[in-house]
Amino acid sequence: MAYLIRGEPAPGRPEGAIEEDRSLPRACVVGAGSCGIAAAKALYEARIPFDCFEAGPVVGGLWKFENPNGLSGAYSTLEMNTSGPRMSYSDFPVGTDDYPPHQVVAEYFDRYVDHFGIRETITFNTRVEHVAPLGDGRFEITTSSDGLRATGTYDAVLVANGHHWDPRWPEPPFPGGFDGEQMHSHDYRRPEQLAGKRVLVVGGGNSGMDIVRDAADFGAAAFLSLRRGVHVIRKRLGRKRKPIDQTLAPPWLPWTLKQKGFELMRIRSGDVSDYGFDEPDHKVGHAHPTVSDEIHDRLGAGAVKPKPNVRELRGDRVLFEDGTEEHVDVIVYCTGYKVSFPFFDQGFTSAPDNDLPLYMRTFHPDVEGVYFLGLAQPLGAIMPIAERQAKWIAELLTGSYRLPSKEEMRAAIADARIAHARRFYKSKRHTMEVDFDEWMRDSERELRAGRRRREVREA
Ligand SMILES: Cc1cc2nc3c(=O)[nH]c(=O)nc-3n(C[C@H](O)[C@H](O)[C@H](O)COP(=O)(O)OP(=O)(O)OC[C@H]3O[C@@H](n4cnc5c(N)ncnc54)[C@H](O)[C@@H]3O)c2cc1C
Ligand SMILES: NC(=O)c1ccc[n+]([C@@H]2O[C@H](COP(=O)([O-])OP(=O)(O)OC[C@H]3O[C@@H](n4cnc5c(N)ncnc54)[C@H](OP(=O)(O)O)[C@@H]3O)[C@@H](O)[C@H]2O)c1
User: Fold this and answer.
1) Which of 16, 82, 111, 336 could form a disulfide with 381 if both were Cys (CB 3.0 to 4.6 A apart)?
2) 235 within ligand 1 shell (Cβ under 6 A)
3) Is 340's C-beta closer than 6 angstroms to any atom of ligand 2?
4) pLDDT at res. 15
5) What proportion of the chain, given as a percentage, has pLDDT over 90?
């Protein structure tokens, strides 16, 4: 079990370790990726007794290249697409203004847990196998470690198991049969896997852009198949090549004006449809951002060949919707991920087609005591959002914040869904999309409102 603070600092734990307050609810954090460690820190600082279980031997989750947990889809050429100042936790800068590569990101999370004395609160190599509501507001949690099972009872469960580890393959699969290699982007590790091969990449998200670039640089041929046109914005723009997420409009501007900012970035980036893809069926800013500094140039040079959707797999060839056919050795499906909670019973909480309506992407109005971290697709980085969610949940557990009523939460969710449907085109990749700056502003406002609600109730 995790280290519980009983006055004496544990070996390696900084002097003055904070003592837990056993009168507070007892919490369990599932996972110690970038969101789980933010949760552990907030609970620790709020003196909430907790265990943080991590299936693998390290923190950082996805960002730990070749993480022994077997769940990380990081590849050797991966860098963040959210720049340093945007992805840093509020009290611990990553130390670069640019987009950090995966090694720097993983090291950053390591430094974070050591700096704040959090590592000792995490129980490594321990998987949460089952979370069962006991019916009295508490949960029985079963964990496994080295084949041994253990159970514990908790008042709150903070879910931070990540949502980019369960690959989504094309549904339904493309018709026909393929004799070559087929892999999901989750299993792509390094460009050498593509060396000398004729590679077809399917999907127009950020995985697709990165991997088709690697295919162009290392393979014998690179094809990119898109089922709809995409806007691809360059990651750095202007003479100083400033990361684009440092030039976004403030959250208070109306969307119509903010959208003009996106349009400007699109124009400065250039349209990939100029190279043979379909025109997008949506405006820029109305999809999860696809960013790349290289794809326009690779397309321009003919190193990446544009293709429409796949019609049929034909042995060692692939037939596309425009009737063209190509000889292909390997297909890399960059078709996104499923949101999965293997430790919940299906009837308790699940996210069919990635859809799990939550109040402020954190609180389920009908499932008290279970809170979600990082279960959002931000137009921005997830780490500061998780940090805010963690502090928010800690305030709820210590009683200094009160949630709105269930009815109010349901109404807010319904409003958010309407606004969301107006902006983002319908796709399983868009079920959890949030605008980073707006979410940060709204969550700050709600925290203040909830503290007032609590004071009014106390009075
Ligand atoms: C290729 C790629 C690039 C990305 N780039 C960016 C980016 O640039 N910026 C950005 O903000 N986001 C990016 N993302 C999104 C990514 O999800 C987040 O960056 C971040 O990894 C989310 O952190 P997390 O803690 O939620 O999940 P993870 O990093 O996946 O960590 C989850 C942790 O939970 C543990 N765990 C899982 N199940 C259990 C269990 N049952 N019991 C115990 N432990 C468990 C895992 O072992 C893991 O350590 C990217 C995603 C992908 C796929
Ligand atoms: N730091 C980085 O540089 C980096 C790199 C990779 C990934 N990421 C992040 O990781 C997350 C996942 O990205 P992702 O690119 O793996 O997935 P994604 O954003 O979900 O994109 C999936 C793509 O596959 C397409 N697709 C899905 N099913 C398909 C089908 N049956 N046939 C054809 N096309 C299909 C989708 O098209 P539709 O749009 O039509 O649904 C979409 O273009 C995102 O948050 C992303 O930003 C970041």
Assistant:
1) 82
2) no
3) no
4) 58
5) 90
- SS3 call for 229: coil
Give the Å distance between the CA of 275 and the centre of ligand 2: 20
Residue 308 CB-half CA count within 13 A: 11
More confident residue, 311 or 256: 311
**Does residue 11 register a pLDDT over 60?**
no
- For ligand 1, pick from 34, 58, 62 the residue to mutate: most ligand atoms within 8 Å of CB: 62
- Tell me if 49 CB under 6 Å of ligand 1: no
H or E stretch at 202: strand 198-202
Nearest alpha-carbon partner for 59 in 91, 82, 36, 88: 36
Q: Looking at this protein, which amino acid is placed at residue 165?
A: W
Distant-in-sequence contacts of 140-145, Cβ < 8 A, 24+ apart: 141/28, 143/53
Question: 187-242 pLDDT, tens per residue?
Answer: 999 999 999 999 999 999 999 999 999 999 999 999 999 999 999 999 999 988 99
Q: Is 73 in the pocket of ligand 1 (CB under 6 A)?
A: yes
Distance between CA atoms of residues 62 and 76, nearest Å: 12
Ligand that comes closest to the CA of residue 185: 2
- Specify whether the CB–CB gap between 401 and 392 falls below 8 A: yes
Q: Is the CB of 83 under 6 A from ligand 2?
A: no
Q: What is the mean pLDDT of residues 363-383?
A: 95
Q: Which of 83, 202, 206 to mutate to test the pocket of ligand 2 (most atoms within 8 A of CB)?
A: 206
pTM of the model: 0.95
Residue 286 has pLDDT above 80, yes or no: yes
Q: Are 5 and 20 in contact (CB under 8 A)?
A: yes
